[in-house]
């Protein structure tokens, strides 16, 4: 992958893996009971395994170099859900080719993630790391992937997220260093930084995240969580930074805007910049098939031009 001038990434999210395993009653004596009821009354009809499987088959046919998964693999963070999701991940692709960040459903109640995320560690740790530490950093060819965790347990009725100061500081330092390397920087976080979430579902420190991007820049910011497609830009130091929110990978149902989909990105290295082609693949109504939806074509400046000239003189090949 390192030598090619064009790399293809696929982005999917909000897998909400079905079916839900049997839940021992003692594990439901907390917020889980609400999620369990919601799943059994309604969500099991919306998030369907056959749709997810059809999406993965369509995605494979597009032959991406790397897959990006922005969380909510599970529903109420049951121990067995984490194990089933690990099996699903293993079938999706090897850890080298699949980068995962967790969502709020993956940390649905306090303590669940401590054990559950161990099953997913290989897919959400950095190149040099033995354990998942967020943000993690993976270099794939000319691309750098920075994976963040916004997954924190929230009170009943809430689905909010939080990065925290430590992650934000480490993210900024990494973005600056990767700009000096001339990398195409992809930032993954479950909760959108675009202003599309209702307050009880939002990223609490969204403004602080946006301030990091404003100062340090990035080339692409990818999220899920809303189960709808959104696109927009965040302010960056050298121009707008594209941000996308992908629909849920498993959502069927009758609302067209919530229908399952995933994104494909073709990133081409060009003189002085990048060409970014974005394409939404969307579930066709009434079928288990996917077709092209919105497409976008963007040109982005190379980040290293933004670092001081003295640094460039200091040995960038
Ligand atoms: Fe979700």
Main sheet: strands, sense, barrel: 6 strands, mixed
Approximate shape:
globular
Fraction in helix: 10-25%
Sheet-strand content, in percent, reads 15-25%
The pLDDT mean sits at 92
| CATH fold field value | Purple Acid Phosphatase, chain A, domain 2
Order of helices and strands: EHHEHEHEEHEHEEEEEEH
Order of adjacent strands in the largest pleated sheet:
3-2-1-10-11-12
Quick one: CATH class?
Alpha Beta
How many discrete domains? 1
Q: Label the CATH architecture.
A: 4-Layer Sandwich
The poorly predicted ranges are: 306-317
Structure commentary:
The chain has 317 residues and is of the alpha/beta class. The chain has a single domain (6-19, 29-313), classed as Metallo-dependent phosphatases (Purple Acid Phosphatase, chain A, domain 2), CATH 3.60.21. 25% of the residues lie in helices and 24% in strands. It has seven helices and twelve strands. Strands 3-2-1-10-11-12 form a six-stranded mixed beta sheet. A six-stranded mixed beta sheet has the order 4-5-6-7-9-8. Helix 5 runs parallel beside helix 6 (206-216). The structure holds fe (ii) ion. Fe (ii) ion binds at residues 14, 16, 72, 103, 105, 225, 227.
In short:
The chain is of the alpha/beta class. It is 25% helix and 24% strand.
